[in-house]
Every structure is written in C-alpha cells, then in structure tokens.
Design a protein that fits this description.
Chains A, B: This is Transcriptional regulator. Two copies of one chain form a homodimer. Chain A is of the alpha+beta class and 102 residues long. In chain A, 61% of the residues lie in helices and 14% in strands.
Chain lengths: 102, 102
C-alpha cells in the first residue's frame, strides 16, 4: 500500500501548510491576533495574495476573522484551535532552520 | 522589522519543505533508506519529478544518494543528519493532520 494511501491526511496537511506564504502567515498569528495591515507590512506579499491566503485559511478553519464594530471598523485575524494546533509543526521547522540553514 | 527580515531562514525552510512532494519524500525516508523504485511506487508522482525533487534535496544536503556496486547496481536514498533533523517538524504535521483533518 502506498504512503499516500496510508496518509492522505498527511498529504493534505503538507499541501495546506506548504502553500507559499501560508506557513509564514500562521507563524505570524502564533504570536497573537494581527490586523490585515500589520500582516501585509510584515510579509513581502501583495495585499491581493495575502487576502486570498487568509480566505483559504478561514475556509479550512485554521484562521478566524473578527470584526470589531468600532469607528473605524477594526478587523483582526486570529488562529482557531485548529490553527493553534500547528504550533508544534511550525516550531519544529523554525528550530530546524536555526540549526541547519545559514 | 518584518517577520521575513527577522526570519529569512524560516522562510527558506518553509519553501524547501513546502514544495510539492518534498515533505512526503522526507516522510518516507524517515522510515529508513529507500530505493528509487520503492519511492516511485509509493507516491503518485512521475519518475521524472521524483528524480528532480531528490536531486534538489541532495543539493540541499537533506538526502544522500548511495550507490552499491552490486550486479545489478543498487541505488538507495537516505536522509543525512540535516534531513533527520526534520523529524520533529514532520511528526508535528502528521500529528496535527490526525487530529484535525478528516
């Protein structure tokens, strides 16, 4: 039996996390809720692409979008429990990068 | 200062691991050395693409290619120490996928 047959979930997880910017978006949010503008200024990514990635992560239930009815309206992105669950994986990648990448 | 400025290595690590098939190739090799044909039959990927990914991982120092001078010649792929270092990250992704993906 193939690995992919054994591990369709692992395959899906790799595709989800591995998509360009997705890991770094989650990494940012592990630090706490962020406004769209904060994330945009912290990543060398267009607003359009960041918005697309955030929508994908919302659809996957990894990120939640919270609207605060203030003036002006404040919108924040935060990790759900599913998103927080990625902490060990992201930490593992970060630790590895510190040891092995120059 | 941006996250990417703070974490160029994390960004590079995400790009490396996130590339399609790369994570699953490393996952397979965490189980032990594999011949090319074993990996090819275990992943729904063309031989050409698998070969390309393995060459990239060799170049990054994550995978080593060992040639055994038998008849016929046997070629095996194995993780280097740098590759083994990804175990925690891959385990983290696998655990998360078991809990959160259906």
């Amino acid at each position: 039996m193939s690995e992919v047959e054994l591990c369709p979930r692992l395959s899906k997880a790799m595709d989800l996390i591995g998509k360009r910017w997705t890991g770094l978006i989650i990494y940012q949010l592990l630090d706490g809720p962020k406004r769209f503008s904060e994330m945009e200024s912290a990543l060398p990514v267009s607003g359009r692409l960041l918005s697309e990635r955030l929508k994908e992560l919302e659809k996957e239930g990894v990120v939640a979008r919270k609207v605060y009815e203030e003036a002006p309206v404040r919108v924040e992105y935060t990790l759900t429990s599913k998103g927080e669950g990625l902490k060990a994986a992201i930490d593992g990648i970060e630790q590895w990068s510190k040891v092995w990448l120059s």
